[in-house]
C-alpha cells in the first residue's frame, strides 16, 4: 500500500537534464518527481536543468515542472557535473544527435520513442549505446506502455505458458486529432522532423508491444498507408512552403494498416491512425494462443481480459468458460505494491513513473534497462519495412 516518502538525504543524487518541455517533457517531469515518492529508489532523481531554445518559455516550464535551472543549448547539459542523465523529449529529428553526444559524454540517456527517424540513425544510436554500455553508461527508449501493469502481467502470463503457442496478435492505436482538415501543419506532420506520421508515432508503440508481449520479433510485413489531407494551414499563417494561401504540404502518413508475420509463424495485424473520429487515444492489443487469449484496451487501463481455454475442457466446463476480467490492482501485480489498496485504479501517467523506477534501478544495479536502443532499433526496422511495403502497394517485405 502506498506510503508517501522521500529518499533519505544520504541517497546519491541522479541529476536529470531534460531536453524539450512540451507534452512529453511534462509527462516525464511528473514521473521524475513522483517515482521517488512511490518507490524506494537507490538514487534520488534531481530535476537539475531543463533545456529549450526559447528561454522565456523554458523558464516558465522549468518553474512549473520543478527544475532548478535552464539552458538554451543542449550541449551545455553535457558539460555539467551535476547532470548524470539526459532525458530526450524532443521531436525525432534530434534524438540521434543528442543521444549519441550524451552517451559519448558519459551521461545515461532516456530517449522518447520512436528511437529515431530512420534505421541509419537508430543503428548509430544502438552502436553508441553499446560503446557506452561497456563503460557503465545506460540507455533506454521510452516505450512507456510496457509499464502498464496489465500489459506487464500479460507478458508474464504469456512467458509462463498460460496462452500457449501464439497464433495471432491484433493491435490498433487510433486517435482522431487530424480528422479536422483545419488542424495546422505542426512538426508531427513533417517528415524531416517526425520521420513518419501515425506509423512512427502510434504504430511504433504497438509494434514494440507485440515484440514485448510475445518475446518474438516481426519477420515480415505488408502494409498500406494514406495521407487523407495532404495540405494544411501553417501554424502561424505563413512560413516555408507557403503557397500564398498560407498552407503547407503534409509529408507523412495520416494512417497505416499492415499485416505481419512473427518469427514463429504467428500472424499479426496492426492499424495506426489519427483519423478515427471519436477515438482519442484508443490502444488495443489482443494475443491469441493455443491455450488461451489476452486482450487489453488502454481506455480500461487497469484491466486485462484473459480466456483460459483449458477451462472448457477442465473443471469449469464449456457452459461457463470464457473471458474473465482481471482487475490488475492487487499488490502482487506488477508495480502495484507501491500504490493504493486493491481496486484503487492507476492512470496513464503511472506508466512514465514506472519507466523512471525501472531505469533508476537498472542504473544503480549496473544492469541494462529494457527497452534498450538495440530494442528500439528492431522497432525502427519494422517501421521502415512497412513504409517500403506501402510504397510498393503492399508488397511483402522482410524485416
Ligand atoms: C501522439 O498524439 C501521442 O502523444 C504520442 O506521441 C504518444 O507516444 C502517445 O502515448 C500518445 O499520443
In words, what does this structure look like?
The protein has 399 residues and is of the alpha/beta class. The chain has two domains: 13-145, NAD(P)-binding Rossmann-like Domain (Rossmann fold, 3-Layer(aba) Sandwich), CATH 3.40.50; 148-369 and 378-398, Dihydrodipicolinate Reductase, domain 2, CATH 3.30.360.10. 32% of the residues lie in helices and 24% in strands. The protein has helices at residues 23-38, 55-65, 74-78, 95-104, 119-133, 149-159, 191-194, 198-214, 310-313, 349-365, 373-391; strands at 13-19, 44-51, 69-71, 85-88, 108-112, 139-142, 166-174, 218-226, 231-233, 247-249, 255-262, 267-273, 282-289, 292-297, 303-308, 323-327, 397-398. The strands form three sheets. It has a nine-stranded mixed beta sheet with strand order 16-15-14-13-7-12-11-8-17. Strands 3-2-1-4-5-6 form a six-stranded parallel beta sheet, with helices on both faces. β14 (292-297) and β15 (303-308) form a beta hairpin. The relative contact order is 0.16. The model has no long low-confidence stretch (mean pLDDT 95). Alpha-L-sorbopyranose binds at residues 23, 175, 201, 281.
Top keywords for this entry?
Rossmann fold, 17 strands, single chain, 2 domains, Dihydrodipicolinate Reductase, domain 2, globular, 9-stranded mixed beta sheet, 6-stranded parallel beta sheet, alpha/beta, binds alpha-L-sorbopyranose, 399 residues
